Amino acid sequence: MQGNNNPTRYVAIYCRVSTDEQAREGVSLDEQQERLKAYCRAMGWAEEVLLFIDDGFSAKSTDRPQLNRLMEYIRKEQISKVMVTKLDRMSRRLLDLLTLIDMFQEHQVSFISISESFDTNTPSGRLTLQVLGAVAEFERERIRERVLDNMFHAANQGKWLTQSPYGYHLEQKELVIYESEASIVRRVYDLYLNQGLGFLAIAKRLNEEGLPSKQNKEWSIRSIKLMLSNPVYKGTFVWNRTDSSKKKRKLKDDAEWIVIDDCLPVIIETVMWDRVQAKMTKQNIAPRAKTSPHLLGGLLKCGHCGAGMSIGWSGSPNRRYRVYRCSANKNNGTCTSKQYRANEVESSFLSGLSMLSQSLSLELIPQFAEKENSPADQIHQRIQAAKNRYKRKVEAYTSGLIDLSDLEEEKQRRDRILLENQSQSNMIEKLPIEQLSEIIGNKISTLIEAIEILPVEEAKSLLGTLILKVTVHGEKELDIELDVI
Questions:
Q1: Catalytic site includes residue 461
Q2: Where's the Resolvase/invertase-type recombinase catalytic domain (predicted)?
Q3: Whole-angstrom Cα Rg for the chain
Q4: What are the boundaries of each domain within the chain?
């Protein structure tokens, strides 16, 4: 045994096969080993042989157990040669191959492929390596393109290509509604839209009732959010949204998506699905405000400066009472608004809701819709303003006045505004005036009853389904802005 300054170096035999390759081509691990050992004997190499076998691993990634183990031996200067039967046993990607070869040469390790008859310690071997690597990568891309073409064709025919979503079963590559799960999907949408529960509250309720998700796991914030945003439930097929060829998935451009409307069994009506998307793009109440024991926490805005109103206490130690005060006044003194007694403000709010409920009629809604600055007009103005602002940013970028990061930030802002307001616009166009009036009236009545009988925390969940914000000008002077979408 040699000392540490001159460690023993081995010949590494690396073999790999993926399950589908072995079934398709009969490329067995035993055959690879025998061929490589016979080559060593024929070459008269006296070094001891070490085996590194990756069974059932694809060449698409270099993150393989035995390949990683081989790298550790190389870093410790314990390998003189690395042998494979064919180039693609090591990797099918030229970039990965060159990266590995660079590391081999850094540690004076030659790379030998017996089928292609080359050794990377020679210039001709390195040239051959690059040529063959390019050919291997080209062939892999051709196979990938053929697979994608087949998947595109199936997707355009409405065939489902992956595991069925919760609420459906898969029969002959077509989705069919599985009612025991579909009823839970409808309930989740109702809990979120009509009862004001958030993702966590919905997940917690389903878990407490012992209702498992598709994979028999507990529900989570992510699984609830994915369910509420999945267009499959309104009958829309969407495929090819993400690029999964790399470790980190990336959202593709809209133009590459396959979107087919009204081709799948419907669990959630389009109107309800659109309303859920509109709500998800808004953030009416901050998470902390939702759990506040004060009725208007998170909803109340200052009539002087528009800042949020926070809760506080006032009065003597023996006669303390709750107050709402402007956050801008409290934190930095930039607003001159006074504080308001919370009980008075909340009482005025309930009175205002009762008046809205009593005065709401079919006569008011058409008048509201016919105004020049109607909700539809406001939505159009917001969309157009976002487009114009982005257009100006593009011109500024072209002129070299701003960086690309500024332009991308503006694009994200524009897309967010378009998504939110387009969903609202669809709702206004689809709902008849009578139906809109009935929805608002029923919501107000339900909300008033809930506030009277439920704990404040539970009543606030329903409050967020109807009230967009409340602006206070005085303890008995409030503006209540409804969220009718």
A1: no
A2: 10-158
A3: 33
A4: 10-148, 157-281, 343-482
